[in-house]
Write a structure and sequence with these properties.
With 266 residues, this protein is α/β, with parallel strands linked by helices. 41% of the residues lie in helices and 14% in strands. It has helices at residues 6-15, 27-35, 47-50, 62-73, 94-106, 122-130, 146-149, 159-175, 187-196, 217-220, 238-255; strands spanning 19-23, 40-43, 80-84, 112-114, 135-140, 179-183, 201-204, 212-215. The chain starts with 5 loop residues before the first helix and ends in an 11-residue tail after the last helix. It binds 3-methyl-2-oxobutanoic acid (KIV) and sodium ion.
Length: 266
């Protein structure tokens, strides 16, 4: 498999080839996901929830993002790696936005960064794009806007809200983003945005008409809670498999059946 670059995604949209994206946060999982042939890997700030156990993504720091991006890059993936810019790393001023984007590339090793927001994030997207770091936008249900949204709710319902989201999508493209995540929006609106934009749209809870799809790896593997959001498809149920393996180990240790002769040095 050839190494993916920012150029591949524009071509995939033009050719109608769907873009498959998954999140990854560490070395071994990245090897597995990349070996399976994923196009793009997102080191998402969702790591704050699925890896670090926070209630939401707001506490995630630049240090967290750099640490995990480095671990992902050590797997030398052929996939194009995008690192999320965490809350407060790009909202306060453009100098911070530039510096923090630069650190995710320079120290983390990512090829691109992702920023949440539409019209309100356009200046940051343009500032970072200007220093030749590709930026992926992210509009609709933006988890860092949790307190404004009053929860993780579908966005862009109704004509006025839909028009506002279209404006966000246009602003992100105009600011120079190479792709945009559409999260938690009605499928009809996602189709309209996908048709209107020249850059690829990557959907999550945004229906089948997007140019690509992204999901959180812990969600598709059944590693987290028993219940998944409507937009998640679980491709495996690993939680009970891991729990059973651990229970068997504990029973072996307690019962004295591990270690066996073959596990011992003579
Ligand atoms: O943090 C994340 O994993 C994300 C994707 C789910 C889009 O932003
Ligand atoms: Na994110």
């Amino acid at each position: 498999q050839k190494k993916k670059t920012v150029l591949d995604f524009q071509k995939m949209k033009a050719d109608g080839e769907k873009i498959a994206v998954l999140t990854s946060y560490d070395f071994p999982m990245t090897g597995l996901i990349d070996g399976a042939g994923i196009d793009m890997i997102l080191v998402g700030d969702s790591l704050g929830v699925v890896v670090a156990g926070h209630d939401n993504t707001l506490p995630v720091t630049m240090e967290d993002m750099i640490y995990h991006t480095k671990a992902v890059m050590r797997a030398r993936p052929n996939a194009f790696v995008v690192a999320d810019m965490p809350f407060l790393s790009y909202q306060t001023d453009l100098t911070s936005a530039r510096l923090n984007a630069g650190l995710l590339v320079k120290d983390g090793g990512a090829a691109a960064v992702k920023i949440e927001g539409g019209v309100n994030a356009a200046a940051a997207i343009a500032a970072i794009t200007e220093m030749d770091i590709p930026v992926m936008g992210h509009i609709g249900l933006t988890p860092q806007s949790l307190h404004r949204m009053g929860g993780y709710k579908v966005q862009g319902k109704g004509d006025a809200q839909a028009e506002k989201l279209l404006e966000d999508a246009r602003a992100v493209e105009r600011a120079g983003a190479f792709a945009v995540v559409l999260e938690g929006i009605p499928m009809g609106l996602a189709a309209r945005i996908t048709e209107e934009l020249t850059i690829p749209t990557i959907g999550i809870g945004a229906g089948p008409h997007c140019d690509g799809q992204v999901l959180v790896i812990h969600d598709i593997l059944g590693l987290c809670s028993k219940y998944s959001p409507k937009f998640v498809k679980r491709y495996a149920e690993l939680a009970p498999i891991i729990a059973e393996a651990c229970a068997n180990y504990i029973a072996d240790v307690k019962g004295g059946t591990f270690p066996e002769e073959r596990h011992c040095f003579k």
